[in-house]
């Protein structure tokens, strides 16, 4: 008789991942050992070396799969484990993946072992396995606490300190993984909140494997633009809200993590875009939520303020002022030195503000606030199970909501005459743009096109005037030579006047287009 390999039920790995932005990782193990929930348990230690495999064109990565060999212990007495994971395309610090981990005899992949998993679903004929090759490695020391609670829940808390290697490049590993062994996922957040009282954390959606791929492609700590959620008309409304909010929040936290080591102004910009997308979606879905969304506390509000101040400096340093240099120097080459002195002072101020942001990210209250938001996000569908769905079709609700945003924007444009009023117009334009981008799969194409065009146009025209108006703030903060200061004040005065009337008369809405009028059917 022909024997058949038996496929075991897919075991679930439920894990909460936290990045640790602490300036001194060497102190982390001692600090964590003093956290009450961990201090009652004896820590164990492991040295782990992992080899990750994929095809040259990264077919596993494309299918959200991971295959690795792990060496536990030293070279002289190693134990080898083969691990295959299948994950979701949904980004989140709380991951749920199918995981099969099996001992193997040596540092060689076993195709036979994979036959007890769902490997055949992605590699029916074995060609993919034959094309596998090592693509990066990780090496780290793990400090492990096994926490059993009074309700019999069990959580494995792992502190990992080490590095990832790919193509001759390395990047550090400094993170916590909280893996659920028994109980409900809420216990992961309970333990994480207790840790966050004394150790700075950031919710992190990037696994070591994802970071390894990014390092191999020279894309680590680059600006992260979250993909738009793939929505369908059949998705439950709270699940739709969760997907939109989760993508935006992940964009925010991923770029925050990159800010710890990246000076790229675009990383900062994408962090702020992620937060604005999150706020916009939170506002849009607020009446559908079974529980109110957490609001920014003092610590998170302080971080957001620091991010805004740094963005103003970056825009002035890289966009606004370089465009004015030629006009200032024209006809008087000796002015070039004065301008360069001003730019040097601005760069120093920007560096100081970037360090302020990094210090803020190391505050425990910031991480605790972000954890609260992450937990609320993960609980959205569960919290809504007892609440009946809105009595409307999803497409109809989306269309009505976006039409309402367009009407609000029209009204604001018609009455705006002051910088404060135009700032409100810009906020509404952002809400319209982000809402349209997030929900475009559920909107009529014409509504998508017109909404994006007008929102983008308003953002650009008002934003340019506001960026220039910020020059007055810089003049007050920098010790500038009189000639430079007078030139910038004059230019800023014109920008402030332009901000009072940033749109030409023909750009202002006069009548409501038919596609924006409320349907009476």
Account of the 3D structure:
It contains 18 helices and 9 strands. The protein has an 8-stranded antiparallel barrel. The chain has helices at residues 28-33, 36-39, 59-62, 111-114, 127-130, 186-196, 208-216, 237-259, 265-284, 298-320, 325-329, 335-361, 364-383, 394-415, 419-439, 445-469, 471-477, 482-500; strands spanning 12-19, 44-54, 65-72, 79-86, 94-104, 133-148, 154-166, 169-182, 202-203. The termini are far apart. The longest helix is centred in the last third of the chain and has 27 residues, at 335-361.
Summarize the topology.
Blueprint: E1 12-19, H1 28-33, H2 36-39, E2 44-54, H3 59-62, E3 65-72, E4 79-86, E5 94-104, H4 111-114, H5 127-130, E6 133-148, E7 154-166, E8 169-182, H6 186-196, E9 202-203, H7 208-216, H8 237-259, H9 265-284, H10 298-320, H11 325-329, H12 335-361, H13 364-383, H14 394-415, H15 419-439, H16 445-469, H17 471-477, H18 482-500
Antiparallel strand pairs: 1-5, 1-8, 1-9, 2-3, 2-6, 3-4, 4-5, 6-7, 7-8
Helix pairs in contact: 6-13, 8-9, 8-13, 9-10, 9-15, 10-12, 14-15, 15-16, 16-18
